[in-house]
Description:
By secondary structure, the protein is an alpha+beta fold. The protein has 22 helices and 34 strands. It starts with a helix and ends with a helix.
Amino acid sequence: MNAVxxxxxxxxxxxxxxxxxxxxxxxxxxxxxxxxALSRTVDQxxxxxxxxxxxxxxxxxxGLMQPDIATGQGGISFDQLDSIRxxxxxxxxxxxxxxxxxxxxxxxxxxxxxxxxxxxxxxxGTAGDPTATDPSKWPAAESVLSDTPKKYRLTASAVSSDxxxxxxxxxxxxxxxxxxAKLVEEQVAGGKNVRIQGPAGETGIKFPxxxxxxxxxxxxxxxxxxxxxxxxxxxxxxDPVSERALLGTAGDFLAPLEKAPPADARxxxxxxxxxxxxxxxxxxxxxxxxxxxFLGVKLKYWAPLMTQYQQAKRxxxxxxxxxxxPLIVRSGTALDLxxxxxxxxxxxxxxxxxxxxxxxxxxxxxxxxFVSKSPFALAWPGSKDLSKLMGDTGxxxxxxxxxxxxxxxxxxxxxxxxxxxxxxxxxxxxxxPGDWVTVNRLPDKAAxxxxxxxxxRNPVDERSYRQNLETGKKLATPLAMVxxxxxxxxxxxxxxxxxxxxxxxxxxxxxxxxxxxxGNETSTELKPSLSATGLVSQSAGAITDFYGxxxxxxxxxxxxxxxxxxxxxxxxxxxKQAQPEVEKLANEIRGMGLQATVVAGSAREDxxxxxxxxxxxxxxxxSPLGTVQQSWVRQxxxxxxxxxxxxxxxxxxxxxxCGAALLTGASTVSYVRKRRSEAGTLRAMGWTQRRxxxxxxAEFGVGAALLAVVGIALSLITWSAATAIVSASVLVxxxxxxxxxxxxxxxxxxxxxxxxxxxxxMAIDSPLTFANRQxxxxxxxxxxxxxxxxxxxxxxxxxVALLIDIPRAAGASALSGLAAASIALPSIILGVSxxxxxxxxxxxxxxxxxxxxRQYLGTLRAMGWxxxxxxxxxxxxxxxxxxxxxxxxxxxxLGIGLxxxxxxxxxxxIAGLVAVLCWIPIATKVVQ
Length: 928
């Protein structure tokens, strides 16, 4: 009988080798699927809108890059930008810079109470708008006010919130009588005149200056309310052509900016006079509604331009050097500012007789910087907006804003200090506080020149975390010229999610408060401050071009004002495929003396930032905010995630298969020891010990050959060095077990050494003592089985530790979570299969003494032992084996955990303990 026949006849060798081969195939298949899913996930989420970020100096540390790349510090010249664009590997090079902060006074808030007087040709017939409602269809007069004036108390207040706490900016009260108006027809020279007149005895309501009073019009009674706090926005500059190329269709909002006039055709006075001439020479109603054409662009928002130009001209703010700055403004705002008016009807003694209600309005998605007509136009309870009866008059509204104040103070990007690093690689930071900025001031004079009582409200100090920017020498008041709007949410969506890279200024990363100053867990999204100088910023209020930057910052020469250049390489494919060309391009840019950071293969990652000195009390004592979280950019995240999780995958495969190989070795050693009688027979026939070992090793050689063939096939199919190494390790362990097994074939004559009348002989009076006697008698098999169970427990502990450690090993970036999720199920399947194979192999080892056990259990049954006692014998035998195996399983699992996953080592030891304890009842039930 040859070795192959003997290998098949042995059954045990065939079974254990088959189990090991099946385990190899399934494990390699599962590991291959896991690796494919990992590679696919990383490749699909690791290349953003650009590949290289160019700055004058590094903007990040430790591989973690802050999202504020438009810092206002400049440092890159337009000549260097041109050189970057001329590189053969450059597809797009899009510059961006922070221009300045812009502080605006909102139009005076007002409270409108419906006091509609019905159609009157003398008042409404001059509208001249074809969209106006036909006079015959105008509704009857209606009003929320009474015919007889009543006395009211109005309490106006404004509240801002940073998302963490609310702050009342002011609370002002005014009283007076209001009633329903009427039309008065008067005879004047040349005909009749119709005017609106309040009821007899109406005093109106007047808040302190700079607020106006109250007045009646055809549709409403309007009460001028206290001035709202100033709102500050940021402005960034881009090259609209390259920015559109970078964003794709999401950047189409920049198309009007491409048609902005050249630098020498932007004189504010000349442009203002041009628009004045349009009205002097006559302009059609359609042109007014669509917007006058200006160099190929329909200026829909011409009214704010005209109003601000005329106001600035009257105030003497415009000079010969003042430039018009073309802007694309943001739709909506993240600023949390609420304006409320409480309306109470009172008697002459000031007692409240009726609570009419409280009306509130916030800046919201309809707000447009530089444009919004009336962001705080509040409606009296029960009022209607009937002004639309006269058609669409929104394009002709006057007094939208006074000219904004442009400033470079406290405009630069925040600075941070590095802190400690968490186990998953997340870096803790701390913000560097700057000066205090005072907001909520009133102007010194009202519009009519009257002095303003500054005691109406208390100025508020806000902590700035930003520094001042440099300016040129040719500062002059600019004139905002709105070309269109953009939606920051659409831009953010175009920038991607996991692989989102900072665009600069108009796509800010929000802050979330995760721990308050007391260390309590929370989850609150923070809002920007009124001054826009804090850590939290919203999308830039406006985008201009670099000529606009020069005008706003006072530069008259080719200054180095570019903060960053986002470069896309001219190479297709995934980050890994593009990596060589991207690195080559980055090196060429570095040769120009610039900092080129490769961001292909990066991913967003939350940074934990401690915020000190955030607020102060009346005594001047400063208090921290707590810890906030913001999405930064982890450089080389794809390489780190791919490498770490690939190593985890391979380690799982190695642990699964090598654990199975060790258990196979334990089984074969126990099995071959039972064949010592065959070795004795062969020895009696004259065979040498060496020939006997060779005879047995030939059988193992068949199994080793099968394992080698399968290992080579799997290595070629997967074309993976890891598979080849793991297969070779399994083969080595199998061969080592064969050699040890062959050493057990030394024949020794067995003599019954059991004394027949020894008083020290253990009395068999219970299942426990019988089980102890049986295990003591068969020490080798007992130890072999205990070792197999211990190896099983250690393997289970190692597998569990690796699975638990996957999130930490993956890292803290968004790509890490996505990649870890992609391999989670295959890894669990691989781990469970390893546990199942190990359990089966320990069962195989436990069955070698099965025939002998059945014989003595039959004897015990004949002696009158009931099934419960026989079951206890089996349980106690397995329990004692488990007791011996427990230290090996727990210590082995702990050691493997410390070696492979130190942060999960304790869980490994617990898993090893549980695995051994679970083996005991399973073995009792299965091996019967």
